[in-house]
C-alpha cells in the first residue's frame, strides 16, 4: 500500500461528523497504524473490520484520546481534536464502550450508568458537598433521563438496582452501552459490542444499535468481528490490514474487493468469503 494520506486536500469541506486524516501510530519502531483515513457520515453506522492484529482497537483508542498519534489528525464536527484529552472529547459528544468490559463491578447498574454523565455535570464542589440547588436539579434531571429513557430503551429496568458483578456477560455489555448513552453522544463508538454473546443476545444488541441510530439520531462507529452483523447493519465498512486501510465502501463493495479476500483468506475465492460472511463470524480482535 502506498504511504500517502487518504485525502490529499485536507482543506476541503468535510461532510463527515467524524474524520481521521493520515493517522499514524507507532509503539517504538513498530507502526500500529499507517496513514489511516476515512470519514463517518452523520446518522450512519460505520464498521471497522480486519483480521487479527489489523489495528482496529488501536484506531479506536487513538480516536477516543487514549493514544496519541505520531502524525495525522482526528476531526470531530470539523474541529481538530487530535490534542484534546479523552475527557474533553467525551464532553464534545464522543462516547465509547470497550472490548473488555470496563464497568465498576462493586456498584449497581444505575450508579454505573449515571457515571456516564459525569463529563457534562456543572455542579461545583461546594454545591455537591452540601447538595444545594444546582446539585439537586442536576441529580433529578440525570435520574429522569437515565431511568425514563436509557434504562427503558435498553430493557434493563429489572436489574437497575442489581450489582454489576452479579450480572451475566450479555447484560453487562448492555449496561456498558447504557453508560455510553448517558454521555449524550453524537457519535457512539462500540468496540466489539457482541463479542462473546450468544445468538439471542447478539440479535438484541443489533436491534438496539439500529434503534439508537433510528430513534435517537446517533451516529455509530463500531469495531466488530461478527461479519453477518456487520454486513446487515452497516452503511459503510472500512477494512484494516497491518494498520492500513485496504478497502472501504458499502458492504457489497467490500465483500467483493480482492484485497479484502486476500487479507482474510490468502486467496481470491469470492464464493468462500461470501459463505463465511453468511455463516457469521470471522475472528478479528485487534
From TrEMBL:
**Keywords on record:** ATP-binding, Cell membrane, Membrane, Nucleotide-binding, Transport
Is ATP-binding among this UniProt entry's keywords? Answer: yes
Q: Which CDD domains match?
A: ABC_Mj1267_LivG_branched
Q: Which residues form the ABC transporter domain?
A: 18-267
Report the domain of life of the source organism: Bacteria
Single GO MF descriptor: ATP binding
State the InterPro entries in the record.
AAA+_ATPase, ABC_AA/LPS_Transport, ABC_transporter-like_ATP-bd, BCA_ABC_TP_C, P-loop_NTPase
User: In its keyword annotation, does this UniProt entry include Transport?
Assistant: yes
SMART domains in the cross-refs? AAA (SM00382)
The record, for Gene3D superfamilies, names: P-loop containing nucleotide triphosphate hydrolases
Annotated Pfam families: ABC_tran (PF00005), BCA_ABC_TP_C (PF12399)
Protein name, per record:
ABC transporter ATP-binding protein
Q: Which organism is it from?
A: Variovorax beijingensis
List the taxonomic lineage.
Bacteria, Pseudomonadati, Pseudomonadota, Betaproteobacteria, Burkholderiales
